[in-house]
Structure formats: C-alpha cells, structure tokens
Amino acid sequence: MRLRSTEAGWGALVRAFHWLIAALILAQGIIGLTMVQMGLTPAKVRVFALHKSIGVTILALVLLRIAWRLSERRPADPPAMPRWQRRAARAVHGSLYALILAIPLSGWWFNSASNAPLVWFGLFDIPGLTRGYAPFWKPRALLLHQTLFWVLVALLALHVGAALWHHFGQRDDVLRRMMIGPRGQTGEGP
Ligand code: HEM
Ligand code: HEM
Fold it and tell me: Is the minimum distance from the CB of 25 to ligand 1 under 6 angstroms?
C-alpha cells in the first residue's frame, strides 16, 4: 500500500491516523465518562492523569494528521454521488477535524484554569494555557469540553451511519478504501 493517497484511495498514513485516533478517542470518551463518577481515591487521580496524557497525545496526533492531510489531495468520490452528499461529507469531515482539535484544547484549558498539574505520562510537565487559577474561565472551559464531546458523538453517529450506508446500501468502495488489512482496498489504482 502506498504511503500517499492517490485518486483511487487513501494512503497508508491517512488510514493509520484515522483508525489510531478513532481508537484513542473511543478509549478517551469511556475513560472521561467513567472517571468523573469515581469517588475521591488515589485511583481517581491516576485515571485523571491518564486521561490528560492520552488527550494531549491525541492533540499532537491530530495536528500531525492535519499537516499531512493538507499536503495531499483526497481520492475521487464515487461518480454517482450527488453534489449535496459530497458537500455534506465535506462539512461533516471538516467539523470532525475541528472537534477533535477543540476537545483536547478545551480539556487542557479547563485543566489550566483549575491550576491542576499536567505531566505527560509522568515524564514531563506541560505548561498551562492560563496564568494560573482562573475561576471565571474554569466552569466555561468545562462546559465547552463536555458540550463539544456530545456534539462529536452526534456527528460520529452520522459519520459512521454514512460509512455503513455506503458499504451495505450503495455497495461502493468508500469504506473499503479507508480500511486497513485484507478487507481494505489497496488504493494502487488500475
Ligand atoms: C479527544 C480528547 C478528549 C476527549 C474525547 C475527552 C473527553 C472527556 C469526557 C467525555 C469527559 C467527561 C465529562 C463529564 O461528563 O463531566 C472528560 C472530562 C475531563 N477531561 Fe477530557 N477529553 C479529552 C481530552 C482532554 C485533555 C487533553 C485534558 C487535559 C489536558 C482533559 C481533561 C479533562 C478533565 C480534567 C476532565 C474532568 C472534568 C471534571 O472534573 O468534571 N481532557 N473528558
Ligand atoms: C472517533 C472516531 C472517528 C473520527 C474522529 C473520524 C474522523 C474522520 C475524518 C475527519 C475523516 C475525513 C478524512 C479526510 O478527508 O481527511 C474521516 C473519513 C472516513 N471515516 Fe472516519 N472517523 C471516525 C470513525 C470512523 C468509523 C468508526 C468509521 C466506519 C465505520 C469511519 C469511516 C470513515 C470513512 C469510510 C472515511 C472516508 C470517507 C471518504 O473517503 O470520503 N470513521 N473520518
């Protein structure tokens, strides 16, 4: 499989970024929703630290993914796809990119406004985004973090629904060309 995308399909790096980030966001959502229900124990502190470290990792991966994506052209859409669907897909994809950037940023903002530590997997300190404790911004940043997460969940329902509809309804290659492994289309072209 080629590293770069072609007219016929996504390159290996786009696919790797897509599924790695999707898996991390799924884990991150589950950890986030679970940890806020925990009683105040040392385990809670450790799970919060893990959530924050994974979140910062996602942010870095998303920045690399966007930089790479801007250097490539996307594969051609299926020829029978109506214009409104192409536009809807572009709008959803653009919003997904904006959300997977804004969610970790808002988490980092909330953490900074709370004046809580941020140590990447116990290895090094990451500075805050505010000048120490910011009681005005703290609840606003948290509300943003929570709201954007649920907006992402709603958009993902649309996104995954559309992918499955392409695969099982339209029977085109849209899902296959994003897959990795034997079921994936190579994207090498004819
Ligand atoms: C894509 C990345 C992320 C996702 C999907 C995510 C998701 C979530 C979710 C679902 C919650 C639970 C919200 C609730 O129901 O109250 C949460 C809470 C939290 N997140 Fe994230 N998060 C991400 C990144 C980050 C980052 C980078 C940080 C900080 C550096 C962070 C810090 C926090 C904190 C401190 C809470 C607890 C809020 C509280 O005390 O109520 N998150 N996150
Ligand atoms: C957290 C989960 C996910 C996120 C954030 C996400 C995000 C994205 C984004 C931003 C794109 C646009 C790619 C680009 O133009 O650069 C994309 C494409 C795609 N995604 Fe996802 N995705 C997720 C999960 C899934 C799942 C679970 C499926 C399948 C069931 C899926 C199927 C696809 C397909 C088939 C494409 C290619 C669409 C095309 O060729 O136009 N995604 N995804």
Answer: yes
Question: The tokens of 55 are what?
Answer: 């979140």
Nearest protein Cα to ligand 2, atom 2: 22
Q: Show the domains of the chain with their CATH numbers.
A: 12-178 (1.20.950)
Helix (H, G, I), strand (E, B) or coil at 136: coil
Residue of the CA atom closest to atom 30 of ligand 1: 108
Nearest CA to ligand 1 atom 13: 146
What is this structure's pTM?
0.96
Nearest-atom number in ligand 1 for the CA of 56 is 27
Higher-confidence position of 68 and 184: 68
Residue 121 CA: distances (Å) to CA of 28, 46, 97, 132: 15, 10, 25, 21
What digits encode the pLDDT tens for the residues 98-107? 999 999 999 9
Q: Which pLDDT tens digit goes with each residue over 72-91? A: 999 999 988 999 999 999 99
The answer to whether 121 touches 53, Cβ cutoff 8 Å, is yes
